[in-house]
Amino acid sequence: MVTNPSDINRLARRVTGALGDSWRFLLIEGIILVALGAAAIIVPPIATLAVEIILGWLFFISGIVGLVMTFMMRHAPGFWWSLFSAILAIAAGAVLLGWPVSGALSLTLLLIAFFILEGIATIMYALEHKRELSGRWGWVLASGIVDLALAAILFAGLPGTAAWAIGLLVGINLLFGGAALIGLALHARHEAV
Fold it and tell me: What does pTM read for this prediction?
């Protein structure tokens, strides 16, 4: 456990040194993520399709591996549940690969449900912590309202939003993640100098 201020300073210097040594790799990764994120934002239907296909293969392959392992351990407890899970993963993968547009619709509905539940939970959190968070509870409340607004926008535009919502959100995630890495790389380069 690090409790001594000199230990904390020494640890901080080691982390900064490690980042300073590899800032170029962070910069390259950040630039690539920003480029991929921008591409996904510019053409979200293609990004949505790519995400669907990747998820389809992940489910399909994990189901096959699960099926093989289930039969290899057929005398273990929970055989039928494991078999059901493997078949379910194979079926989900096959559906996503065979009909990626319907998979996009399903994932968009799941995203809407997530935004609704997250929005409600965030609003309730803000209201319960109104006294403790003083002036900052409004930001938390606003975040919950934005979640509910996003859910409403996605739901109102169905089925059309299914074509672009996932790709756009993945693109935004990649863009901000890449920008964060670029910022970290430039800071690490500055500290290393």
Answer: 0.67
